[in-house]
Amino acid sequence: MKKKPVLLIFAFLFSQMLFGLNLSFQAGFAPSIIINTSDGTQSAVSPVVYPVNFSVNLKIKEHFYFEPRLSFFWYYTLMTERGCYPAEIENRTGTALSFLVDLPVGYTKTFGEKHLIQAGAGPSILSRFAFLSNNVNADDWGATGSAADDINAINSWFWDKAQFLYIKAHFLYLYQINESIKIGPELSFYLPIGSFIDSKPMNNSIISAGLTVRF
Length: 215
Prior knowledge:
Blueprint: H1 4-18, E1 23-29, E2 32-34, E3 48-49, E4 52-59, E5 64-66, E6 69-80, E7 83-86, E8 94-102, E9 105-111, E10 115-132, E11 141-142, E12 145-146, H2 147-159, E13 165-176, E14 182-192, H3 193-197, E15 206-214
Antiparallel strand pairs: 1-4, 1-15, 2-3, 2-15, 4-5, 4-6, 5-9, 6-7, 6-8, 8-10, 9-10, 10-13, 11-12, 13-14, 14-15
């Protein structure tokens, strides 16, 4: 069931390409901070991750677009009595592989011949899978019993109380360097719906700033 949203996105994009709509492809690199609001000593200070991303910009009207994006990154994590949090390498239990699917729509405007800005917002789905980190044994101590039990609890937590659901807002500037390539900075913010449901506002929110290439 969890794979269906991603499969539907790619099926939609393929169908749009068949009909020859106005598509541009993008790739980017956007270092990101995962905000950790916990005051506990076990978890990490807000970690920095380094996602790479690939997206398609679909022009739906003169100034409006739809831009599905897939990003990938990983980070260390642990389970505590209060929930799942990022971890320092010295105190990690699991490694979380993370796939972030963005579905923003927005407004774009061109200035002169070489300058373009766009701003948009929309839902995002963060699909994560944790496994035991290197040098962590399944029978090591864990907050829920053993390290293996903690990994099971972490993977359940990733999908509990909408922890996978975000709202994204982003701003992008592109400069056209030749007929087919544009490049520029992008700033994004991800608001975690699950953290509000879990009464921990802003915990696990994500701030990213990076570079995008459109071709």
